[in-house]
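LOG
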Amino acid sequence: MEGDLASTGDDVPPNSLRRTAVLCVFGLVVAAILTLLQTQRSGLEQDYTTVALVFIAWMLAAALIGSIYPLADKWFYDGKIHDFKQDWSNAIRSVAILVGIHQASTKIPFSNVYELVGTLIFLALGLWWMSDRSKCGFILALLFSVFGAVIGAGAKYVGYASVQNEANLFGYVSDWCIGYSASITFGSIGRILAMPPSQRSKRYLTDSSDKVHVE
């Protein structure tokens, strides 16, 4: 019975090509927002080649992270996708928090750099607690963000920094926090896209039932 249900068209998640396309669109949107905010803050026009590279990097990162998260879930959780708060409202909220973390790293005045670094780390880990809460998600976001921070440091070293901050301790931590938050965000979107409709419906009914009991 379960095999018959799994084989029906209504229980098949979108194919890989569609998922990748949607993830690339989200990556493009995030890159456009962050680049626009950075341009408004600095008042300087960005080099088109650099902006294009940044956009491509965000699109590739979104597609890669969003594809790996559900695959890792299936390995960690016996073939199931982690579904804690995996819905579109939570995904959009994560994008907004990601943009907020970027703004906090560039515009909010703090008394010293350590206070700012602590705030950014708290916000990034808070996003994980609010949107994910899985060991798999925590580890993957940590790995992706460290890799992204290394790439960002290399970009600063060769002079291709655009959305990033200065090449100092704060700049590196800021890049890590943005990369960590982006990993959580794109991972959540990838999970939603890879989740079979039956699992989404079951989770929605469970959430609705919990709200009724609370009321």
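LOG (cont.) second protein
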Amino acid sequence: MVFAMTPDSSLTSMFSDLSSSSASSVYSLGSSLNGFLSPYLVLLAFLALVLVRLFRLLEPAEVPEVFHSSSGFAQEIVSKCPILAERYRPTSLWGKNRHIQIWSFGVLGRPSTPRPAHSLHAGVTDDGTRFTFGLFESKARGAYVGVPVAKQPVTVLCPGIAGNSYSSYIQTYIDEMLKQLPHSRVVSLNHVGTIKDEELSSARIFSYGCTSEYSAVVDWTRERFPGHPLVAIGFSMGANILVKYLAERPERQTWFKGAMSCCQSYSAKTLSCYLDSGVVPRLYSSVLVMFMRTVVSQHRGKLFGERARISGAKNTLVRTTAATTPAVGGRVCSKNAVSCAGGSSCPVPPPDETRALSAHGMVTFDEYFSRRMWHFDSIDEYYSSESCGTIMHKVTNVPILFVNAADDPLVPAEALEFPLQHSRKNENSVFVKTRHGSHLAFYEGGVVIPNTVSWLDRLSIQYFRAILDMPADSQGDH
């Protein structure tokens, strides 16, 4: 017997209804989810775009630009610094953002900062100002035993604004220098007034361009280590002091095998105009002033309790006039000049404690404190006399490397004309410009946490090693 299975009409109808209902429900659910998720997907995409822009994740890591006169010496130096042929790769997540770099540098310093041991020494300048400096030596057993003096270089270091040998970036640099050049030593200046427990011996602190303390440190080093090859390095403000020191008396250049200037702005006038030109620059100006106010506040009794009488202070600085100042950017910043009727100079008033300690911009602070402390008639005269840019053309007899980052928020782009022109006109000069690096930071390596040693540290050690290995007769006019 054969049974024929025929679909029951009611059963077929039921499954048909169920299938139709399920499809409708899925469609309705999909529509609901799509309507629910779409705004959030758009928001997430927007946030991702913001993060990409904020961290500049799509910007490529680039090989530094190197400028020089194509002299044999400059080409040899560049060839002996392989880091200049490699891409500088900032910390992956945030290293290409100049603001994050500089704030990380200012607040956190270097990760895992080493603390190399040193001996503290003191000196006195011609105006009676007492200052201190640190001598750092290798702790490796027998580091100097049996090593010829000519193979024991000494680095004379000048820190940045409000800095000293205890600053994180200075200690990291010194530690790496002593590791990579184990027979070397480092002498680091402590800017006057920056060490909290040290009382001032006169009514002044450091300034943007006063070379007295650095000059005394170099003299001490030459006397303490006769015959040792010397190299010099300055960071930011310290680089301005170093270059100015070399230019003031050209014979000083013959004392050094080489020098390096890191992240300076070359012209205080150009910098002051830039820091007064917009919201972001003014923010950085206020931060710089905060550092200065902190130093001044620690010594306010000495600085404001008596009239600062620095014998011949103005004469200890190289005097320049506006006529000899290179035209950079075409901007004039003379609104703070102080003059009397008939064009004669007014008597310089003493520093104004109230206005100086309440200042929120560098020009205001320098007007009511710095230029008065140094007895200058006007802020323009002070800035002109303090800047190395007005006289750096005299630095011709020592190999020198200038380093700046194009994204440095504290150095205006037009200021980079100073090292650019110097490197093109002098066979002993090389200018290196990186796309990233910000101001002194130059973090590299890692995704979030950078390496302890910066790109700038590595470059300086390669450069000095190359300089020290070169015979003197191969160094241009040096």
